[in-house]
Write a structure and sequence with these properties.
This protein is α+β, with helices and mostly antiparallel strands. It is built from eleven helices and 16 strands. The chain has three domains: about 130 residues, Aminopeptidase; about 120 residues, Gcn5-related N-acetyltransferase (GNAT) (Aminopeptidase), CATH 3.40.630; about 110 residues, Nonspecific Lipid-transfer Protein, Chain A (2-Layer Sandwich), CATH 3.30.1050.10.
Length: about 450
């Protein structure tokens, strides 16, 4: 067996279609998740979108000669996709290196390929100045060992429209929703609005990530990527909320068909930048005719159930982890969030990949954090996995020890549970729960 590293940034040939190298790599990724790699036109579409978004394909291929029936040419056996994104870290919007398509062929496992790829991807992202890496995980037990922690969750809710739910009148009045109007629109014509609203949402919603063009086109029904098709989803309908200053949101719905016992609609895209748009669109969706149930995705504890006449009309049906982040620059990440109280704390961070292991002092004044790293930290990648305290660093501040994956979760979601059950250690545990406390769950409205 002979393995050769793969590094691809050009996905299109001179004919404007996907290269054979790209097709082979994407087929390997699809097979790893037991999916159809899609027809040639879908692969060409993805290649165009991926190259424009700055994707980088890496991995390994096996160059061993194989029988003709096993396929000609080198065979990709390990894959990882990386691409630049932006994320709201709680106060500021910072760069995020997105990671997807991670997999190793069953024939080549237990040879360190996953570890090699992930370490290299994280080291490269850190070297290129990305303070965070992020991914969505198919299996929950894999990525903690590389320093990824859960930063946002996604819930699925069901609304019983048979019960005739309505948004509370006082909510419509207080938000100013009644000052706007709802316009029915062709969803496939809303791409520029989608881009604008995503930019606005990234600025105001902690955890929100900049969306890829392919994600927006799929949400609007321009393409049907869930079915590996470029055909539009013609059953989609869109409703746009226009406020006094222009468009502040839209909702795209899709009927699930009449071959079921009940009539169901799914909200496939819901983009709002104001509370008025949120309330106005929900009030409109509640009045849809010929619909029994409506399903949608949102953050844990989302407010809809509290803002209708009967809270039981909105039911939680699923709660899953969505975005996992990996801190590559402690100072940038922690200085990019806001804090509910002032104080000082020394973080002793343990890192299995040795990228950010060390002691860091966090001082919060007027809700703004400033981070100072120990002067004695070795270079990244050679720090060991266990942090050593630095007695000269904020000598009067309490200490707390935690792993980098738990710090990633704390930075976005707080650390009350981890502190209560002993995952965090040291005399600074209570201070950590106070400083990292958050009012609302962060949320990202798509996966990758």
């Amino acid at each position: 067996m002979t393995l050769k590293p793969i590094h691809i940034t050009e996905f299109l040939g001179k004919d404007g279609k996907a290269t054979e190298d790209y097709r082979r790599m994407m087929a390997r990724i699809a097979h790893g998740f037991h999916q159809d790699p899609g027809a040639a036109d879908v692969q060409d579409y993805r290649a165009r979108r991926d190259q424009a978004a700055g994707f980088v394909l890496r991995g390994f291929e096996d160059t061993t000669d194989l029988p003709e029936w096993a396929g000609s040419g080198p065979k990709p056996v390990a894959t990882i996709l990386g691409f630049p994104l932006r994320i709201n870290a709680g106060k500021d919007v910072i760069d995020l290196w997105g990671i997807s398509g991670v997999g190793v062929a069953p024939t080549h496992r237990r040879q360190g390929l996953l570890r090699s790829m992930m370490h290299s991807e994280l080291e490269t992202a850190q070297r290129n100045g990305f303070p965070l890496a992020g991914l969505t995980a198919t299996e929950g037990g894999i990525y903690g060992r590389f320093g990824f922690g859960i930063s946002s969750r996604q819930c699925t809710y069901e609304v019983n429209l048979r019960a005739k739910p309505r948004i509370l009148t006082e909510v419509l009045e207080a938000t100013g929703a009644d000052g706007g109007s709802i316009v029915e629109a062709e969803p496939r014509g809303l791409l520029e609005l989608a881009r604008d609203l995503n930019r606005r949402r990234v600025e105001i919603i902690p955890g929100q990530i900049s969306r890829l063009t392919s994600t927006m086109e799929d949400g609007l029904g321009i393409v049907s990527l869930d079915k590996e098709s470029l055909d539009p989803r013609r059953a989609c309908e869109a409703f746009v909320y226009r406020g006094p200053r222009g468009v502040d949101g839209y909702a795209v719905i899709e009927h699930e068909g009449w071959d079921k016992e009940s009539s169901r609609v799914k909200v496939v895209d819901f983009q709002v930048a104001t509370t008025a748009a949120w309330a106005g669109l929900w009030d409109h969706l509640f009045q849809l005719d010929l619909i029994d149930y409506l399903t949608f995705e949102g953050a844990p504890g989302q407010p809809l159930g509290n803002l209708v006449r009967n809270p039981r009309d909105v039911r939680l049906t699923k709660d899953v982890d969505l975005i996992w982040t990996r801190i590559l620059d402690v100072k940038t990440v922690l200085e990019s969030r806001s804090y509910p109280t002032d104080g000082e704390l020394v973080l002793l961070i343990d890192d299995p990949v040795e990228l950010v292991t060390g002691a860091y002092a966090l001082r919060v004044t007027d809700g703004v954090g400033t981070v100072t790293a120990s002067e004695y930290l070795p270079e990244s990648g050679r720090r060991g996995t266990q942090s050593e305290d630095d007695a000269e660093l904020a000598p009067g501040a309490p200490r707390v020890r935690l792993s980098v994956d738990r710090l990633a979760s704390a930075a976005f979601r707080g650390c009350h549970v981890e502190a209560r059950f002993g995952v965090l250690r040291g005399e600074g545990v209570l201070q950590a729960t106070r400083l990292f406390s958050v009012d609302d769950e962060p949320y990202c409205d798509f996966d990758f």
